[in-house]
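Here is the promised in-class demo. Please do not try to memorize the tokens; focus on the logic of going from shape to residues.
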């Protein structure tokens, strides 16, 4: 998994690669921008814009925001360990994550509310909640 120093270095490398790619596409990016803003910049990239090699997008959504919220996704380096979390609102319980990878329209499921995984490519996770 690597040391904290190695993980921080990988995160900084990802941040730098994203910043450079956005700058090349004409986006205005400042050195003091928090890393958390980059996923929003990526969603608004001009048509045809591509992330640098080795940078993956993890999209995290709630199937119904009235039932629960999720931790944000974003752009991360392939091979990094990421944890996503779902938080049900009052009167609801977490049921599962629907995980879509490789362009698949058919999800696989993850039943842990807090899910840790190693990034291997772009992925989309949709949290499903149910009434209790």
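The designed amino acids, position by position:
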């Amino acid at each position: 998994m690597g040391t904290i120093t190695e993980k921080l270095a990988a995160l900084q490398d990802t941040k730098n690669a994203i910043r450079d790619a956005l700058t090349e596409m004409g986006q205005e990016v400042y050195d003091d921008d928090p890393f958390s803003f980059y996923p929003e910049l990526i969603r608004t990239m001009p048509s045809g814009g591509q992330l640098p090699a080795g940078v993956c997008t993890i999209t995290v959504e709630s199937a119904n925001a009235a039932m629960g919220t999720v931790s944000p996704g974003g752009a991360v380096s392939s091979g990094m360990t990421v944890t996503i979390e779902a938080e049900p609102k009052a009167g609801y319980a977490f049921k599962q994550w629907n995980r879509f990878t490789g362009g698949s329209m058919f999800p696989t499921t993850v039943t842990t509310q807090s899910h840790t995984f190693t990034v291997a490519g772009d992925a989309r996770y949709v949290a499903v909640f149910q009434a209790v």
